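Hi everyone,

Forwarding the result from last night's run.
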Amino acid sequence: MSLSPTASILLASALALVAWWASTGAILWLVRAGERHARATVIGATVVGVTALVGLAYAARMEGLAGVYLGFGSALAVWGWHELLFLMGRVTGPRRVPCPPEASGWRRFVLSTRTVIHHEIALALTAVLALALTWNQANPTGALTFLILFALRLSSKLNIFLGVRNPPVALLPEPIRYLAGYFRRAPMNALMPVSLIAALALTILLAAVALNPTFVLQARVGASLLAMLSLLGLIEHLFLMMPSPDRALWGWALDRKPIPRAPVLATTGDPEP
């Protein structure tokens, strides 16, 4: 029994939401478990990541809803591979110490970049590879998924560098806890409104495709998956500007022990709480 187009779109949106929540929690849990089984975790994640790249390439040549879901899931798995290696401190950057308190301006930007540059290069190269694997193919869902995740994460990192009310210190595991020293706490920054408007515009554009009956169902379901992903990225940006529900969402995947207070830079005139 096949679902109606409306039901298919609603199902895709719900699955994207669940996949976002579950995959984020799984990564946080694996990072915590990886402290005891680091080598096995890294090897397992790499096997999954490489397999997912093959799945992404295969899905690009598929027509129909199965290809859309395979491409979306494969892109999430590749993304999770990168995030796991980053959070475990395996692929970060050449600088692995806190930011000097006196660093500011361009020097602080250079130092911050050196802490994550290897991770950013790996993401960029993977984005290029995803595009190459899906170029002129029937189903670009996988590549578009990865590109949206990449753009949203880059925007989040820049906003955290410039200053947000609630830097995500609680999500930093021990291997990269030093990154908190490069975060800035501030009531607002100039990039945040641009990021929010861009994410909202992308969400509306993708939702319009998903709700347009003139498009084939494959395109509409793919657009609904991407629209939910974009909406969740928008919400994650909003989390940076208000008390974040990280513990409520992923408490099962985080350490129960109190998180040590990490040095977070505070914007002038805006003291750290």
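Residues 5-255 form one domain.

Cheers,
N.
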